[in-house]
Specification:
Elements: H1 10-29, H2 48-53, H3 61-70, H4 82-86
């Protein structure tokens, strides 16, 4: 049940759109092609298991973990609160 002036199912549509956007972004961030043997950032060898599991890997585990730690979400804010619209 939607509230106020929204139609029924609008909240679920927002949830579905948010998930679809996150999946699309994650897929676009995935590397493709042949994996490197040595990390682009530090030069350390990329473990064979990672190269096999993730085709197109360009960074070692430590460098990729550091990259993932600083990644921020810049997606669309679909929350309906007034405060979220003012940011």
């Amino acid at each position: 049940m939607a509230g106020g002036w929204t139609r029924d199912g609008a909240v679920q549509d927002q949830i579905d759109d948010t998930i679809a956007d996150a999946v699309k972004r994650a897929r676009s961030d995935m590397p493709s092609g042949e994996a490197l043997k040595h990390c682009d950032e530090c030069g350390e060898e990329i473990p064979k298991a990672k190269r096999l599991a993730l085709p197109g890997a360009r960074t070692c585990v430590a460098c990729q973990s550091a990259r993932d730690a600083v990644r921020t979400s810049a997606g669309i804010d679909r929350r309906g609160s007034k405060d979220s619209q003012l940011r």
